[in-house]
Amino acid sequence: MSLDDGTPQPSSPETRKRAFKLLFVSLLCLGMGQSLMFANLPPIARQLGLSEFQVGSIFMISAILWVFCAPFLGRRSDIWGRRPVILLGVIAYAVSTLTFGLVVQLDMWGWIGMGVAYPAMLLTRSIYGGLGAGTIAAAQAYVADRTTRAERVKSVAAINAAFSLGVTVGPGVGAALVVFGLLAPFYGVAAMAFASAVAVYFMLPEQTRPKDQSARPRLSPFDKRVLPFLVAGTIIGTVQALTMQTAAFYFMDVLKLGAEETVQYVGIGLMASAMAAVLAQLVVIPRLNPSAQFLMRIGCIIGVVAYVIFLLADSYGPLVFALVISGLAFGLGRPGIAAAASLAVRQDEQGSVAGLTGATGAAGHLLSPIVAMPLYKIDPTLPYMLGLGLFLLLGVLILANRTIRESGKKVAEDQLGHDDHPL
Fold it and tell me: Which CATH number applies to 13-208+218-410: 2.60.40.10, 3.90.1170.50, 1.20.1250.20, 3.40.605.10?
């Protein structure tokens, strides 16, 4: 129900809990597909004869669209409502994953050549980048609509944890399903995403009346309230992207592995990394209830340690440990940045700011192939030296920028003092 003026009435905790569980499952599917793509595509690419640059461009095309479409779809969620944008993104993701697997399958069977397969791969990833971009932004705004400002860090961390948990279990699912074929994981995740879309359509409550488009302000990425957080998010997103995009190649070259071994070994490493992020977001943050500023600082420190270990590692154990430590850094740092940005703007700008902060991760995937892949061809350690340098740069930004230093200080003043939130 909603009031005549379109303001939603408070809902029961049970209703909110069910809604958040549905969002959790939807983002879980997206996370699974992302980690499967990063773990499975490099060995598939080498089997098909794709170059490192072509692999990077497949990631890059969806990132380019994500950078522009996530803010747009975030704003649309302020107007259309959160559920339509979430649903659009989940369906687009399912279609993209399914068709990508089919294109690779046709090429392996020899039914199409690489001249057709490679552009088709770019097209299928474009569906995800262009339309799937709104899911995380709308989901974060959905949660922000239904929590107090004092709860914002924990709620944003929970949304990030859903995606991270998907990243965690994704490589495990891939390693298990790869025995049925190299592409079986793509089909399985696509099926789960379609099922999630059905659940969102029928079960996710959306009681907020769509708003008049002319009444919705457009939040600029250059707004001084959010720009420092967007820069910080882009830095950490770039480091995360270069790690995920080069990890499989790095494992193959350092450990001298074959294609199927790489899927299994890297799958375990990425799963352990994501488990560390989930631990931070579902256990550490809710228990300690730290400030957004603290999360950014500690995430940066841990990130520096992780990339020093990457540069020193020469065997499987240290490499996995470095992935675990880096996962912990991302699991603490990214929610801190997103929550601080959410707290910096008005309630009617939550969709817009969620779209902007969501675009920073995609911006990292856009920048990484341009920089990290050429560096990798020169020397496999260079991308990890770059990661170390970027974490050091992030530390300087966190300490020097006044907006970031003062982030979250007014949260206590904005507590609602009651347990009911609109749904």
Answer: 1.20.1250.20
